[in-house]
Amino acid sequence: MSAIPSELPLRNDLVGEEPYGAPQLDVPVCLNVNENPYAPSAAVADTIARRVREVATTLNRYPDREHIRLRQAFSDYLARESGVRLPVEQLWGANGSNEIMLQLFQAFGGPGRTALGCDPTYSMYPEYARDTFTAWKVVHRHDDFTLDLDATIAAIRDVRPSMVVVTSPNNPTGTPLPMGQLETLLGVCAQADVEGAPAGAHPVLVVDEAYIEFRDPGTPSALSVLEGHPNLAVSRTMSKAFAFAGARVGYLAASRGIIDAVRIVRMPYHLSAVTQAAALAAFDHTDELLAQVGHLRDTRQATAEWLRTRTWHGKPLEVAESQSNFLLFGGRFEDRQRIFDELLRRGILIRVVGPDGWLRVCMGTDEEMARFREALDEVLAQG
Ligand code: PMP
Question: Of 61, 178, 315, 329, which residue is most buried, by most CB within 10 angstroms?
Fold first, then answer.
């Protein structure tokens, strides 16, 4: 609980609010915040140390505000990962994709504006909205967590949002957004107008692709339709597939206009020279850092199959279809907190998130997953 005395003139809408974040507990097996379980190798750590050492002697100066070399590295990486080559003017970095999203809300949200999302989804979106005085509205997904396209289209026409936020794969469900649905939404947004904006403005469609590298091979990313869609913004991160969550590097691929809008609201020098150097070092080792993505994808597949063979009160566990590095499972735990607590007692930390009755587990190393399976079997056997 935070302790903010009433003598402090805290913003009225923040009274009673708590800081966001999963508990950071010291337990043997952490499968709770969708991290990549594979730590950078000694070779990666050495390159980071060398690159940071190089910039250390320049830290009396402000860093490159436009982080041009890093944007070039994003461009090279995306060309390789998604087959889409973008100029640096269409790329932008920040401290995690959290900051990318906040900058988008700062640029396109604000008083009198609404952002639309499709829940259950990432629980930070309402916080970005709150922090930028943007109204936040949601359309509910279908029972299988796929997008309710008709309801979403109706809401875009009705609410006239300035931003539509879709997450692919979605967190906490893992659900991908099929390309056909994305194209439909782009078409609808291109025709829709925006409450609180001058005539002729259309909503920005934000696709949060934090987990996109874990999708099945051959599935296109929203990057492939960037061209010709000036109102499409694709948010990415190095936190997950790149195993770089601690460095705080996210990035945005979008039209030049969207990037220029974000440049208006960013803090001057928001990306430190140390962060830029560390990120460039990581890109020197792209192959190695991404080497485990395929294995984590296989782990997800195997874990989903295993979970479906488990039963709870005589019925198989439900597992949401996931294209990510985590799985939402259970479906009908009447007391999910107890299952969570029992796993925690056995040294396994997962996450109570998503609709009631479900729990989320993210993929760890083979050994961690073996311990998870063993512990879950014990807990399920207790009934
Ligand atoms: N988007 C989604 C859907 C996420 O789940 C997360 C992290 N949990 C983020 C964005 C933010 O990640 P980061 O700031 O580390 O890039």
Answer: 329
